[in-house]
């Protein structure tokens, strides 16, 4: 099976000749302008670590509900630990998503919870977090160069930020599920960029400009990368935050696991569009000034993870 979105090798940027580096920068920049997505290979994320992390995730999510709920603490607004099935919904979508998940963040911003019943869980997810964090910083450097900004312009925003690794379980679709519920209803990501470790099954689709949905297969060795609302705001709409969803399987008994890595700027970051991007998009600032902290809080309220 071939990939339906542009595929790039991170080796070209990290260690390739200057011509290869420029080709990488151009390819991912144009992909984020056109469709908001691309697939990454040779990314340096340990394949065995990804698979072992999924095994630990399955062990956790198969625990009794009462045990899992011990790790759901309302004071964290869903930003650490467990979030129960059906709690989150997409913006402007009344039906809940058919998923449960666990959040791991940076230890320096907020303490992570650790499921004692699965002792290997936290060490594995922490290692995966570190590898994804390094990969994301490199991708943001390439994005900045595409925009004509200093190399560290975007990656510096994420130093010490509360970037989140979400470990998601999409269980078999319940017989009594709302008829309009999907595993993940159409939505856009909140953050700068998202790195999605190869999911255990397909189901991800992006909304194309002609109004049709494009399936993005889950292929071994590939990380799917997309740009979020915060990057769209910073670039005055030049780089797109594309609507996407995860559809329900034909066989309702199937389950799916995925691990998106939501890369956030520090809370105090000003998301006012970059002047160079304003000039590239017609000279009119499309998005008003707002801090990352304020924008995140508003969006978490919209999707049901934070109280109004």
Protein described:
The chain has 308 residues and is an alpha+beta fold. The strands form two sheets. The protein has an eight-stranded mixed β-sheet with strand order 1-2-10-7-12-5-4-3. The protein has one domain: Sandwich (Jelly Rolls). It has helices spanning 10-14, 18-34, 47-61, 65-68, 121-146, 229-234, 275-280, 292-302, and strands at residues 7-9, 37-41, 81-83, 100-105, 164-170, 184-187, 193-197, 204-207, 213-215, 223-227, 244-246, 256-263. α2 crosses α5 (121-146) and α3 crosses α5. The mean pLDDT is 94. Helices cover 29% and strands 18% of the residues. The protein is built from eight helices and twelve strands. Pfam families: 2OG-FeII_Oxy, DIOX_N. Keywords: Iron, Metal-binding, Oxidoreductase. One of its GO terms (molecular function) is metal ion binding.
Secondary structure blueprint with pairings:
Blueprint: E1 7-9, H1 10-14, H2 18-34, E2 37-41, H3 47-61, H4 65-68, E3 81-83, E4 100-105, H5 121-146, E5 164-170, E6 184-187, E7 193-197, E8 204-207, E9 213-215, E10 223-227, H6 229-234, E11 244-246, E12 256-263, H7 275-280, H8 292-302
Helix pairs in contact: 2-5, 3-5
Protein name: Isopenicillin N synthase family oxygenase
Family: Belongs to the iron/ascorbate-dependent oxidoreductase family.
InterPro entries: DIOX_N, IPNS-like_FE2OG_OXY, IPNS-like_sf, Iron_ascorbate_oxido_reductase, Oxoglu/Fe-dep_dioxygenase_dom
